[in-house]
Amino acid sequence: MEIYNAKKSISLYVDLDGTLIKSDLIYEGLFLAIRKSPLILLHLPFMLLRGKASLKEKLADLVTPDPKLLPYNKNVLDQLRSERASGRILVLATASHKKWAEVVSNYLLLFDGLIATENGCNLKGRKKLMAIRSCKMNNGKFSYIGDSLADMPIWKEAEQIYAVGLSPKNKKILQRFGKETVFFDLEQSLLLSAIKALRPHHCIKNFLLFLPLMMAHSFDTKLWFLVTLGFISFSATASATYILNDLLDIESDRTHPKKKDRPFASGALPCRYGPIIIAALISISAFTAIFLPLMFKFWLAIYLFLTVIYSFWLKRKVLVDIFALASLYTIRIIAGGSAVDLNVSNWLLGVSIFMFTSIAFAKRGIELINATPHEDNLLNGRGYRANDLFLVEQIGITSAFSAVIMLSLYLNSDDVLHLYSRPKLLWGTCLVLMYWLSRFWVKVHRGELYHDPLVDAVKDPISICCGILVFIIALIAV
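RESULT FIELD:
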């Protein structure tokens, strides 16, 4: 942060969106409203036709963001508190709706007044400048803190310039005004935050698409290329749904000890970038899927549909959420077979259903263990309670060993005799799987797992060794 001397006697007008907070309240409010009533998406185009001011008013009537949970820009907030302590007059001047601005102002207790969007007037750019000019608190002179080029007309007339997150090029433009200036730089790179929002480490789940080819012992490079295209398509779609889920759960994520650091929840990546990234990812997925069979497109569409309704509704339904999660894993396997017109074995489907149901129960078990003990409804936005933990663990463990039983039945099938010259060796995979699942659930019970079990498994040396051992057994059996 580069700071020059300031004249404390001049009122300081403070922008809200992108300045005082890292996010934008119109997008925060929009996603809160969509979560509350998804049908608002049907009315959104008509609301936009009436102008941004009308949209803000409609959203302000529907929802109110919690000011305690907003991602405040710490450096700006500290500066304002210092200015306030020195006796400076602070005025909140924002294009957000007045109802929301008042909530933030009342929470922070820093401002002597506010001007905001109301009565159909979107207070941005020159309209905000006119409102500042007519405000009785500036005595003909004022200073301003903002974050975008839309604030340029206001900065030109301000006695002092405070700017947040500007590029080096725009900083030079402001410095040419020859005024006292304060620059606040962003704490994190937008590009790195966007990459983090994609959750690239979760792409490991999409390697399930290759499982049918591996189980069929196929080494055709063309088929592997097609499944690779499917992998890219599924990865793009999955990342798009992760972003949608983060946007819809933004307030509940901010109350979670780990999820609060996610890019959208923390404000490192403003919400306005969410829809753009989702559209880009879906476009990449659709383009890649063009080269794959119709059945692959069908299962990709089913996956997308199920994840969307999971984000909006299913995740708050006890047990239904778990079986929906388990289905998403199995759909990946089916889609992998569909990408190369390969029938997926019923045995493989049976093992995967029980296995992933167990993992889904483990995920809920981890969340219950990490939840605050005194809360009645332990999972924010879910229906699970403290005394559900025992039941969740029991069903999860039962599902795990059902997967082992299903695998043992598969080892007696004609498929195994056809594919393997030493099928009896494959019984070693049952022992390894049984050990891994037992250890897995011991770690769940002790609360030693990350909130996503599969991500934890990839980082766990013993889990990696178990995977290598299964591969070696299968290779020798072939």
